[in-house]
Amino acid sequence: MRQGTRSWIFLCASLVFLLLGPASVQAGERLFQYSTIDALLAGVYDGNLTMGELLNHGGFGLGTFNTLDGEMVVVDGVAYHVTAGGKAVPAPNDAKTPFAAVTDFDEDTILRLAPAESMAAFNAELVKGLPSPNAFYAIRIDGRFPWVRTRAIPGQSRPYRPLAELVKEQVVVKYTNVQGTLVGLWSPAFVKGVNVPGFHWHFLTADRTAGGHVLDCAVGAVVAKVDQLLEFTVKLPAEGAFTGTDLTPDRSSELESVEKGSAQ
Amino acid sequence: MRQGTRSWIFLCASLVFLLLGPASVQAGERLFQYSTIDALLAGVYDGNLTMGELLNHGGFGLGTFNTLDGEMVVVDGVAYHVTAGGKAVPAPNDAKTPFAAVTDFDEDTILRLAPAESMAAFNAELVKGLPSPNAFYAIRIDGRFPWVRTRAIPGQSRPYRPLAELVKEQVVVKYTNVQGTLVGLWSPAFVKGVNVPGFHWHFLTADRTAGGHVLDCAVGAVVAKVDQLLEFTVKLPAEGAFTGTDLTPDRSSELESVEKGSAQ
Fold first, then answer.
1. B211-218 and A78-82 as β-strands: parallel, antiparallel, unpaired?
2. Which of A213-217, B9-13, B106-110, B185-189 has the lowest mean pLDDT?
3. Chain A contacts of B4, Cβ < 8 Å?
4. How far apart are CA B141 and CA B144, in angstroms?
5. pLDDT at A20 over 60
6. What is the per-residue pLDDT across A204-236, written as a single tens digit (0 to 9) for each?
7. Cβ-based neighbour number of residue A169 at 10 Å
8. How many Cα atoms occupy the beta-carbon half-sphere of B252 within 13 Å?
């Protein structure tokens, strides 16, 4: 065997080992998250993670942008920036986030779901189809929806107020008979304080020009694509407001009012 | 240039890229954890992660073994199995854990600490030296200690009882004027339910033949080596008791009694 051939065989074997070795995990099996939901609730609205870095960890997910400027919806490897009013544009590669969670979406299973009159009713059916509540799930639903009500909060100026106080500034948009994609995450109860326990949904229209954080919606008969994620990586900010913020209080009630869009 | 030489250059470049690429993180900057502390408190005493797999994620840390058989102390790349009574031996590569957390220890900083009469007094001083409570830290202290009181719980049989009920079966050992290593982790408050908030200490004698979970100790003037960890990866069991266990209750008071070794 020529030396070049032997080298190439060794090269290929090394690459396979590095990519599939026991210490590695396929990106598609892991939820990657930057910062924590409680830090966001506490007013840590500026982070140091760029879209370029975030998208290295996955092309499907949700979050927000620095200064809490609107909502982030990540679909098919593109991070869309939804500003107050609902307009969506692809975010530049150097835009930064204070909070986001992404994965590489790999469909593990599909769930065929009956129509539901509300997000709460839809979630109640969907959770029955998840193998265990003690895992993470990325959920993708492409379809036509009777209506979707979304919100986005406008960017803030310093000094930042807590998130629960800003819900009254949210801009709500209702899309009717709309084609689009629901981007959802399920997080288990035990990550309370780190991510949003239960379902968290963002929406993007099929033409990728509008969307937001879903407050409520009606859903027809749809197919939900589900990706179970058994690894969860949190990257914590190394500097800035995060390091000095009091992250010991239980902010569950603040979170509920923020997620549902009801001012406290 | 000969083809073999070109191939080797390409091989080396590929390896460097894969090991240092933008999506990768040095193992030394990340705490890797298997399962959650609340699952352990709830009686999930059997996991599927072998020592071989665990040690791929780091050679410094702590945990326990399947059936809750004693305590795990990981130092210098070796996972030691401390059984009830305090005897330590290297665990076989195929031994499994239901809960463990490890990192590759890289000393970021050292803290020179004054003598302390108790673990609580020592912890109170040590926390003042940490840059932020909102990160993870691995802490290594090699030295001679006036005394260290440790415990280990004997392996259990099914049906498993909750951990807080088993504290009365713990075997406590007191080491006096003992040379050894304190292996510590600091976890931030926001991972309550996932890991132990605050400090968690295990101990191993210098000859690596004895140790356990530290209940209390006195500490002379020591140097603490500190490794700040800004990434935290949790690997969740894919099957077994974990998936069906109710992980919604707040088990903080159970955890406190278990960590301090006081029966409820």
1. unpaired
2. B9-13
3. 2-4, 6-7
4. 10
5. no
6. 999 999 999 999 999 999 999 999 999 999 999
7. 14
8. 8
Which residues on chain A are in Cβ contact (under 8 Å) with B130? none
Q: Give the pLDDT confidence of B175-193 residue by residue, as tens digits.
A: 999 999 999 999 999 999 9
**Cα(A248)–Cα(A38) distance, rounded to whole angstroms?**
9
Does ipTM top 0.90? Answer: no
CA trace torsion A258, A249, A51, B23 (10° rounding): -140
B113: tokens are: 């600490």
Contact list in A for residue B134 (CB cut-off 8 A) is: 39, 236, 242-243, 245, 247
Q: What is the largest CA-CA distance in chain A?
A: 74
* Phi–psi pair at A225, nearest 5 degrees: -90, 130
A23/B18 Cβ within 8 A: no
Count CA atoms closer than 13 A to A124's CA, side-chain side. 7
pLDDT above 60: residue B6:
no
Q: Which of B181, B200, B240 is nearest to B49 (CA)?
A: B240
Partner-chain residue, chosen from A189, A190, A236, that has the shortest CB–CB distance to B134: A236
What number of H helices and E strands is found in chain A? Answer: 7, 15
Q: What is the DSSP string of B74-125?
A: EETTEEEEE-TTSBEEEPPTT-EESSEEEE-----EEEEE--BSSHHHHHHH
Q: How far apart are CA A31 and CA B41, in angstroms?
A: 25
